[in-house]
Write a structure and sequence with these properties.
Order of helices and strands: HHHHHHHHHHHHHHHHHHHHH
Distance between the termini: 55 Å
Helix content: over 70%
Shape: globular
Radius of gyration: 23 Å
Structural class: mainly alpha
Strand content: under 5%
Protein backbone atom coordinates (compact mmCIF):
# COMPACT_ATOMS: atom_id res chain seq x y z
CA UNK A 1 0.00 0.00 0.00
CA UNK A 2 1.29 3.44 -0.96
CA UNK A 3 1.87 5.77 1.98
CA UNK A 4 -0.42 8.82 1.99
CA UNK A 5 0.09 12.03 3.88
CA UNK A 6 -1.66 12.05 7.25
CA UNK A 7 -4.73 14.28 7.38
CA UNK A 8 -6.19 16.31 10.22
CA UNK A 9 -8.93 13.78 10.87
CA UNK A 10 -6.39 10.95 11.16
CA UNK A 11 -4.70 12.61 14.14
CA UNK A 12 -8.04 13.72 15.56
CA UNK A 13 -9.35 10.16 15.61
CA UNK A 14 -6.25 8.81 17.36
CA UNK A 15 -6.14 11.58 19.96
CA UNK A 16 -9.91 11.70 20.41
CA UNK A 17 -10.28 7.96 20.98
CA UNK A 18 -7.38 7.94 23.44
CA UNK A 19 -8.87 10.89 25.34
CA UNK A 20 -12.24 9.14 25.56
CA UNK A 21 -10.64 5.87 26.70
CA UNK A 22 -8.56 7.64 29.34
CA UNK A 23 -11.49 9.60 30.70
CA UNK A 24 -13.84 6.63 30.93
CA UNK A 25 -11.25 4.24 32.36
CA UNK A 26 -9.44 6.54 34.78
CA UNK A 27 -12.05 9.12 35.77
CA UNK A 28 -15.34 7.25 35.44
CA UNK A 29 -14.32 3.67 36.23
CA UNK A 30 -11.39 4.53 38.50
CA UNK A 31 -9.03 2.05 36.85
CA UNK A 32 -5.36 2.30 35.92
CA UNK A 33 -4.30 4.21 32.76
CA UNK A 34 -2.06 1.53 31.22
CA UNK A 35 -4.72 -0.42 29.31
CA UNK A 36 -6.36 2.71 27.83
CA UNK A 37 -2.91 3.74 26.64
CA UNK A 38 -2.37 0.31 25.07
CA UNK A 39 -5.72 0.62 23.30
CA UNK A 40 -4.72 4.09 22.18
CA UNK A 41 -1.56 2.66 20.63
CA UNK A 42 -3.66 0.09 18.79
CA UNK A 43 -5.99 2.78 17.42
CA UNK A 44 -3.08 5.00 16.34
CA UNK A 45 -1.44 1.98 14.72
CA UNK A 46 -4.60 1.12 12.81
CA UNK A 47 -4.89 4.70 11.56
CA UNK A 48 -1.23 4.56 10.50
CA UNK A 49 -1.98 1.37 8.57
CA UNK A 50 -4.91 3.05 6.83
CA UNK A 51 -2.61 5.91 5.86
CA UNK A 52 -0.29 3.34 4.30
CA UNK A 53 2.44 2.68 6.86
CA UNK A 54 3.71 -0.86 7.24
CA UNK A 55 4.08 -2.64 10.56
CA UNK A 56 7.86 -2.24 10.49
CA UNK A 57 7.42 1.54 10.21
CA UNK A 58 4.94 1.63 13.10
CA UNK A 59 7.17 -0.55 15.26
CA UNK A 60 10.19 1.63 14.54
CA UNK A 61 8.16 4.71 15.54
CA UNK A 62 7.11 3.05 18.80
CA UNK A 63 10.65 1.99 19.64
CA UNK A 64 11.92 5.49 18.89
CA UNK A 65 9.40 6.93 21.31
CA UNK A 66 10.23 4.38 23.99
CA UNK A 67 13.95 5.01 23.54
CA UNK A 68 13.38 8.68 24.41
CA UNK A 69 11.88 7.63 27.76
CA UNK A 70 14.68 5.37 28.96
CA UNK A 71 16.48 8.09 30.92
CA UNK A 72 13.25 8.94 32.73
CA UNK A 73 12.79 5.26 33.56
CA UNK A 74 16.30 5.00 35.00
CA UNK A 75 15.78 8.19 37.03
CA UNK A 76 12.55 6.79 38.47
CA UNK A 77 14.25 3.57 39.52
CA UNK A 78 17.12 5.55 41.04
CA UNK A 79 14.73 7.72 43.06
CA UNK A 80 12.91 4.65 44.33
CA UNK A 81 16.23 3.29 45.58
CA UNK A 82 17.25 6.68 46.99
CA UNK A 83 14.05 7.12 49.01
CA UNK A 84 14.40 3.73 50.69
CA UNK A 85 18.10 4.16 51.50
CA UNK A 86 17.57 7.69 52.80
CA UNK A 87 14.94 6.42 55.19
CA UNK A 88 17.16 3.55 56.33
CA UNK A 89 20.12 5.92 56.76
CA UNK A 90 18.13 8.28 58.97
CA UNK A 91 18.20 11.18 56.47
CA UNK A 92 14.43 11.47 55.99
CA UNK A 93 13.69 10.68 59.68
CA UNK A 94 16.16 13.44 60.68
CA UNK A 95 14.44 15.94 58.40
CA UNK A 96 11.15 15.09 60.07
CA UNK A 97 12.69 15.15 63.56
CA UNK A 98 14.27 18.60 63.24
CA UNK A 99 11.44 20.01 61.19
CA UNK A 100 8.93 19.10 63.87
CA UNK A 101 10.71 21.46 66.26
CA UNK A 102 10.57 24.64 64.19
CA UNK A 103 7.25 24.79 62.34
CA UNK A 104 3.75 25.94 63.19
CA UNK A 105 0.54 25.51 61.17
CA UNK A 106 0.58 29.15 60.06
CA UNK A 107 4.20 29.31 58.84
CA UNK A 108 4.55 25.79 57.57
CA UNK A 109 3.28 26.17 53.99
CA UNK A 110 5.57 29.09 53.17
CA UNK A 111 8.55 27.22 54.65
CA UNK A 112 7.62 24.11 52.66
CA UNK A 113 7.37 26.02 49.37
CA UNK A 114 10.60 28.00 49.84
CA UNK A 115 12.74 25.09 51.08
CA UNK A 116 11.48 22.73 48.36
CA UNK A 117 12.16 25.38 45.71
CA UNK A 118 15.74 25.82 46.94
CA UNK A 119 16.42 22.08 47.09
CA UNK A 120 14.81 21.51 43.66
CA UNK A 121 17.25 23.96 42.10
CA UNK A 122 19.93 21.38 42.88
CA UNK A 123 18.32 17.95 42.85
CA UNK A 124 15.30 18.56 40.58
CA UNK A 125 11.57 18.09 41.08
CA UNK A 126 11.48 14.31 41.43
CA UNK A 127 14.46 14.24 43.79
CA UNK A 128 12.86 16.94 45.97
CA UNK A 129 9.47 15.24 46.11
CA UNK A 130 11.06 11.90 46.99
CA UNK A 131 13.26 13.20 49.81
CA UNK A 132 12.59 16.63 51.32
CA UNK A 133 8.96 16.51 50.18
CA UNK A 134 8.38 13.26 51.97
CA UNK A 135 9.77 14.76 55.17
CA UNK A 136 7.60 17.88 54.96
CA UNK A 137 4.53 15.76 54.36
CA UNK A 138 5.18 13.94 57.62
CA UNK A 139 5.61 17.20 59.52
CA UNK A 140 2.47 18.74 58.03
CA UNK A 141 0.33 15.73 58.87
CA UNK A 142 1.71 15.72 62.39
CA UNK A 143 0.65 19.30 63.09
CA UNK A 144 -2.80 18.67 61.68
CA UNK A 145 -2.65 20.09 58.15
CA UNK A 146 -4.58 18.47 55.34
CA UNK A 147 -2.29 16.29 53.23
CA UNK A 148 -3.47 17.71 49.90
CA UNK A 149 -2.58 21.26 50.97
CA UNK A 150 0.91 20.22 52.05
CA UNK A 151 1.49 18.17 48.89
CA UNK A 152 0.39 21.17 46.81
CA UNK A 153 3.04 23.35 48.44
CA UNK A 154 5.64 20.58 48.00
CA UNK A 155 4.81 20.15 44.31
CA UNK A 156 4.84 23.91 43.69
CA UNK A 157 8.24 24.34 45.31
CA UNK A 158 9.67 21.25 43.65
CA UNK A 159 8.76 22.44 40.15
CA UNK A 160 10.41 25.82 40.64
CA UNK A 161 13.74 24.08 40.10
CA UNK A 162 12.35 21.91 37.34
CA UNK A 163 11.62 25.08 35.38
CA UNK A 164 14.49 27.35 36.38
CA UNK A 165 17.48 25.20 37.32
CA UNK A 166 20.27 24.55 34.78
CA UNK A 167 20.59 21.10 36.37
CA UNK A 168 16.97 20.16 35.61
CA UNK A 169 16.18 17.62 32.91
CA UNK A 170 13.06 19.57 31.98
CA UNK A 171 14.90 22.87 31.60
CA UNK A 172 17.70 21.30 29.57
CA UNK A 173 15.24 19.43 27.35
CA UNK A 174 13.23 22.59 26.66
CA UNK A 175 16.41 24.46 25.71
CA UNK A 176 17.58 21.57 23.53
CA UNK A 177 14.28 21.19 21.66
CA UNK A 178 14.06 24.95 21.10
CA UNK A 179 17.71 25.22 20.14
CA UNK A 180 18.13 27.94 22.77
CA UNK A 181 21.07 29.00 24.89
CA UNK A 182 20.33 27.50 28.31
CA UNK A 183 21.58 30.29 30.55
CA UNK A 184 20.16 33.05 28.34
CA UNK A 185 16.80 31.27 28.40
CA UNK A 186 16.87 31.13 32.21
CA UNK A 187 17.95 34.78 32.47
CA UNK A 188 15.04 35.92 30.29
CA UNK A 189 12.64 34.08 32.63
CA UNK A 190 13.82 35.70 35.88
CA UNK A 191 11.56 38.76 35.79
CA UNK A 192 8.30 36.88 35.27
CA UNK A 193 9.47 34.14 37.61
CA UNK A 194 10.21 36.63 40.40
CA UNK A 195 6.71 38.12 40.25
CA UNK A 196 5.03 34.71 40.31
CA UNK A 197 7.29 33.46 43.10
CA UNK A 198 6.29 36.38 45.33
CA UNK A 199 2.62 35.83 44.52
CA UNK A 200 2.99 32.17 45.52
CA UNK A 201 4.48 33.15 48.89
CA UNK A 202 1.62 35.59 49.47
CA UNK A 203 -0.84 32.84 48.59
CA UNK A 204 0.65 30.38 51.07
CA UNK A 205 0.77 33.06 53.77
CA UNK A 206 -2.94 33.71 53.20
CA UNK A 207 -3.79 29.99 53.30
CA UNK A 208 -1.74 29.58 56.49
CA UNK A 209 -3.40 32.53 58.21
CA UNK A 210 -6.84 31.20 57.35
CA UNK A 211 -6.14 28.03 59.31
CA UNK A 212 -6.84 27.83 63.03
CA UNK A 213 -3.65 28.07 65.06
CA UNK A 214 -3.09 25.03 67.21
CA UNK A 215 -2.15 25.58 70.85
CA UNK A 216 1.47 24.80 71.82
CA UNK A 217 0.27 21.99 74.07
CA UNK A 218 -1.66 20.44 71.19
CA UNK A 219 1.33 20.61 68.87
CA UNK A 220 3.66 19.16 71.49
CA UNK A 221 1.20 16.36 72.25
CA UNK A 222 1.28 15.22 68.64
CA UNK A 223 4.95 15.95 67.91
CA UNK A 224 6.73 14.64 71.01
CA UNK A 225 5.69 10.96 70.64
CA UNK A 226 6.83 11.00 67.03
CA UNK A 227 10.17 12.59 67.87
CA UNK A 228 10.67 10.04 70.63
CA UNK A 229 9.83 7.17 68.28
CA UNK A 230 12.21 8.49 65.62
CA UNK A 231 15.01 8.97 68.15
CA UNK A 232 14.42 5.45 69.51
CA UNK A 233 14.67 3.81 66.10
CA UNK A 234 17.26 5.96 64.31
CA UNK A 235 20.51 7.64 65.29
CA UNK A 236 19.74 11.29 64.60
CA UNK A 237 22.38 14.00 64.23
CA UNK A 238 24.21 16.25 61.79
CA UNK A 239 25.69 13.19 60.08
CA UNK A 240 22.16 12.17 59.09
CA UNK A 241 22.25 14.80 56.32
CA UNK A 242 25.47 13.52 54.77
CA UNK A 243 23.75 11.68 51.86
CA UNK A 244 21.94 14.90 50.91
CA UNK A 245 25.20 16.87 51.08
CA UNK A 246 26.95 14.26 48.92
CA UNK A 247 24.29 14.47 46.22
CA UNK A 248 24.26 18.27 46.29
CA UNK A 249 28.04 18.32 45.84
CA UNK A 250 27.70 16.00 42.84
CA UNK A 251 25.24 18.34 41.18
CA UNK A 252 27.28 21.46 42.02
CA UNK A 253 30.11 19.86 40.06
CA UNK A 254 27.65 19.47 37.17
CA UNK A 255 27.29 15.73 37.43
CA UNK A 256 24.20 14.56 35.49
CA UNK A 257 21.08 13.84 37.54
CA UNK A 258 21.14 10.06 37.14
CA UNK A 259 24.65 9.41 38.52
CA UNK A 260 24.06 12.08 41.19
CA UNK A 261 20.94 10.26 42.37
CA UNK A 262 22.73 6.91 42.37
CA UNK A 263 25.66 8.31 44.34
CA UNK A 264 23.19 9.87 46.78
CA UNK A 265 21.47 6.50 47.17
CA UNK A 266 24.84 4.77 47.67
CA UNK A 267 25.78 7.34 50.32
CA UNK A 268 22.50 6.61 52.06
CA UNK A 269 23.11 2.87 51.90
CA UNK A 270 26.63 3.20 53.33
CA UNK A 271 25.41 5.45 56.13
CA UNK A 272 22.61 3.01 56.93
CA UNK A 273 25.17 0.24 57.33
CA UNK A 274 27.83 2.23 59.18
CA UNK A 275 25.72 4.56 61.34
CA UNK A 276 22.38 2.81 61.70
CA UNK A 277 23.77 -0.74 61.85
CA UNK A 278 21.61 -2.06 59.01
CA UNK A 279 22.81 -5.29 57.40
CA UNK A 280 23.92 -5.36 53.77
CA UNK A 281 21.21 -7.89 52.87
CA UNK A 282 18.56 -5.64 54.46
CA UNK A 283 19.75 -2.63 52.46
CA UNK A 284 19.48 -4.58 49.22
CA UNK A 285 15.98 -5.67 50.23
CA UNK A 286 14.96 -2.08 51.06
CA UNK A 287 16.37 -0.79 47.77
CA UNK A 288 14.41 -3.43 45.88
CA UNK A 289 11.06 -3.55 47.69
CA UNK A 290 11.06 -0.43 49.86
CA UNK A 291 11.81 0.38 53.49
CA UNK A 292 9.44 -1.12 56.06
CA UNK A 293 9.13 0.94 59.24
CA UNK A 294 8.48 -0.79 62.57
CA UNK A 295 8.46 2.01 65.14
CA UNK A 296 5.18 0.90 66.68
CA UNK A 297 3.37 4.13 65.77
CA UNK A 298 0.98 3.39 62.88
CA UNK A 299 1.11 6.92 61.45
CA UNK A 300 4.90 7.06 61.48
CA UNK A 301 5.19 3.54 60.09
CA UNK A 302 2.89 4.43 57.19
CA UNK A 303 4.97 7.52 56.50
CA UNK A 304 8.37 5.82 56.63
CA UNK A 305 7.38 2.64 54.80
CA UNK A 306 8.25 3.87 51.31
CA UNK A 307 10.68 3.75 48.42
CA UNK A 308 12.13 0.80 46.58
CA UNK A 309 12.69 0.05 42.93
CA UNK A 310 9.57 -2.13 42.68
CA UNK A 311 7.26 0.70 43.74
CA UNK A 312 8.19 2.54 40.55
CA UNK A 313 7.15 -0.24 38.18
CA UNK A 314 3.59 1.09 37.89
CA UNK A 315 4.78 4.52 36.85
CA UNK A 316 7.41 3.09 34.52
CA UNK A 317 4.79 1.04 32.69
CA UNK A 318 2.83 4.23 32.05
CA UNK A 319 5.92 6.01 30.74
CA UNK A 320 6.82 3.22 28.30
CA UNK A 321 3.32 2.85 26.85
CA UNK A 322 2.76 6.62 26.68
CA UNK A 323 6.03 7.13 24.82
CA UNK A 324 5.11 4.32 22.40
CA UNK A 325 1.86 6.12 21.60
CA UNK A 326 3.68 9.40 21.12
CA UNK A 327 6.18 7.68 18.87
CA UNK A 328 3.42 6.42 16.59
CA UNK A 329 1.80 9.85 16.41
CA UNK A 330 5.10 11.55 15.60
CA UNK A 331 6.53 8.91 13.29
CA UNK A 332 3.41 8.62 11.11
CA UNK A 333 2.77 12.37 10.82
CA UNK A 334 -0.56 12.30 12.63
CA UNK A 335 0.39 14.91 15.23
CA UNK A 336 1.73 17.37 12.65
CA UNK A 337 -1.43 16.97 10.59
CA UNK A 338 -3.56 17.63 13.66
CA UNK A 339 -1.85 20.92 14.51
CA UNK A 340 -1.12 22.39 11.06
CA UNK A 341 -4.61 23.85 10.49
CA UNK A 342 -4.42 25.59 13.87
CA UNK A 343 -1.07 27.23 13.11
CA UNK A 344 -2.44 28.79 9.92
CA UNK A 345 -4.99 30.76 11.93
CA UNK A 346 -2.53 32.24 14.42
CA UNK A 347 -1.77 35.94 13.91
CA UNK A 348 -0.17 37.48 17.04
CA UNK A 349 2.70 36.48 19.30
CA UNK A 350 0.26 36.25 22.21
CA UNK A 351 -1.89 33.76 20.29
CA UNK A 352 1.17 31.75 19.30
CA UNK A 353 2.31 31.53 22.91
CA UNK A 354 -1.19 30.69 24.16
CA UNK A 355 -1.70 27.95 21.56
CA UNK A 356 1.71 26.45 22.32
CA UNK A 357 0.95 26.35 26.04
CA UNK A 358 -2.48 24.82 25.44
CA UNK A 359 -0.86 22.21 23.18
CA UNK A 360 1.72 21.44 25.88
CA UNK A 361 -1.05 20.95 28.44
CA UNK A 362 -2.98 18.83 25.95
CA UNK A 363 0.10 16.70 25.34
CA UNK A 364 0.50 16.23 29.10
CA UNK A 365 -3.11 15.10 29.27
CA UNK A 366 -3.27 12.92 26.20
CA UNK A 367 0.18 11.41 25.73
CA UNK A 368 0.85 11.72 28.84
CA UNK A 369 4.47 12.48 29.75
CA UNK A 370 6.43 15.64 30.53
CA UNK A 371 9.10 14.78 27.97
CA UNK A 372 6.51 14.45 25.21
CA UNK A 373 4.74 17.54 26.49
CA UNK A 374 7.96 19.47 25.85
CA UNK A 375 9.26 17.67 22.76
CA UNK A 376 6.16 17.34 20.56
CA UNK A 377 4.92 20.97 20.76
CA UNK A 378 8.52 22.17 20.42
CA UNK A 379 8.91 20.24 17.18
CA UNK A 380 5.51 21.42 15.96
CA UNK A 381 5.90 25.13 16.59
CA UNK A 382 9.66 25.68 16.31
CA UNK A 383 9.53 26.79 12.68
CA UNK A 384 6.54 29.04 13.33
CA UNK A 385 8.34 30.81 16.17
CA UNK A 386 11.31 31.36 13.88
CA UNK A 387 9.15 32.63 10.99
CA UNK A 388 7.47 35.16 13.28
CA UNK A 389 10.76 36.46 14.66
CA UNK A 390 10.19 34.93 18.10
CA UNK A 391 13.41 33.91 19.85
CA UNK A 392 14.44 30.35 20.58
CA UNK A 393 14.78 31.31 24.24
CA UNK A 394 11.16 32.44 24.28
CA UNK A 395 10.09 29.11 22.78
CA UNK A 396 12.09 27.22 25.41
CA UNK A 397 10.47 29.20 28.23
CA UNK A 398 7.00 28.70 26.77
CA UNK A 399 7.59 24.94 26.56
CA UNK A 400 8.72 24.87 30.18
CA UNK A 401 5.79 26.95 31.40
CA UNK A 402 3.26 24.95 29.39
CA UNK A 403 4.57 21.42 29.83
CA UNK A 404 7.12 21.02 32.62
CA UNK A 405 5.13 22.58 35.46
CA UNK A 406 1.66 21.41 34.41
CA UNK A 407 2.64 17.75 34.07
CA UNK A 408 2.23 17.20 37.81
CA UNK A 409 -1.36 18.48 37.62
CA UNK A 410 -2.49 15.58 35.40
CA UNK A 411 -3.41 12.44 37.41
CA UNK A 412 -2.31 9.95 34.75
CA UNK A 413 0.76 11.87 33.62
CA UNK A 414 4.05 10.30 34.65
CA UNK A 415 4.77 13.26 36.94
CA UNK A 416 1.33 13.19 38.53
CA UNK A 417 1.63 9.45 39.03
CA UNK A 418 5.06 9.87 40.63
CA UNK A 419 3.78 12.44 43.12
CA UNK A 420 0.89 10.13 44.00
CA UNK A 421 3.27 7.17 44.38
CA UNK A 422 5.61 9.03 46.74
CA UNK A 423 3.29 11.37 48.66
CA UNK A 424 -0.05 9.59 48.45
CA UNK A 425 -2.23 12.48 47.18
CA UNK A 426 -3.75 12.57 43.71
CA UNK A 427 -3.49 15.51 41.32
CA UNK A 428 -7.19 16.48 41.66
CA UNK A 429 -6.65 16.74 45.42
CA UNK A 430 -3.50 18.90 45.48
CA UNK A 431 -3.64 20.85 42.18
CA UNK A 432 -5.45 23.92 43.52
CA UNK A 433 -2.75 24.29 46.19
CA UNK A 434 0.15 23.87 43.71
CA UNK A 435 -0.02 27.60 43.00
CA UNK A 436 3.21 27.91 41.01
CA UNK A 437 2.23 25.10 38.64
CA UNK A 438 -0.93 26.77 37.35
CA UNK A 439 0.12 30.40 37.82
CA UNK A 440 3.25 30.16 35.62
CA UNK A 441 1.43 29.23 32.37
CA UNK A 442 -1.13 31.97 33.03
CA UNK A 443 1.70 34.43 33.63
CA UNK A 444 3.43 33.36 30.42
CA UNK A 445 0.26 34.01 28.39
CA UNK A 446 -0.05 37.48 29.96
CA UNK A 447 3.62 38.03 29.13
CA UNK A 448 2.80 37.14 25.53
CA UNK A 449 0.12 39.80 25.47
CA UNK A 450 2.64 42.37 26.72
CA UNK A 451 5.09 41.33 23.99
CA UNK A 452 2.34 41.66 21.37
CA UNK A 453 1.46 45.17 22.55
CA UNK A 454 5.15 46.19 22.46
CA UNK A 455 5.48 44.68 19.00
CA UNK A 456 2.47 46.68 17.80
CA UNK A 457 3.86 49.93 19.21
CA UNK A 458 7.22 49.25 17.59
CA UNK A 459 5.56 48.77 14.19
CA UNK A 460 3.61 52.02 14.55
CA UNK A 461 6.69 53.98 15.56
CA UNK A 462 8.57 52.52 12.63
Amino acid sequence: MKTKQAKFYHGLISIGVLAALMFVSVVVLGTEPQIPLVLGCIIAGIIATVIGYKWDDILESMLTGIHQSLEAVLILFSIGILVSTWIASGTVPAMIYYGLSIVTPRTFLVATFVVCSIVSMIVGAWGTVGSVGLAFLGIGQTIGLESAIVVGAIVAGSYVGDKLSPFSDGTNLAASVAGADLFRMIKEMLGLFGVIYVLCIIGYVFIGLSMPEAQPEQIAASIDPLKEAIAANFKIGVVSFLPLVVMIVCVIFKMPSLPALLIGALAGALQAVIVQGVGAAEIIGFATSGFVSETGLPFLDDLLSAGGLETMLRTVSIIVIAMAFGGIMQGTGQMDALVEPIVKRIRSWASMIAVTIVTCIGANILLPDQYLGITVPGQMYGREFEKRGMSKELLGNVLGAGAAVTSALVPWNTCGMYVETILGSTAPEYSVYAIFNWMLPIGMILFGIILTVKQGKAKKSA
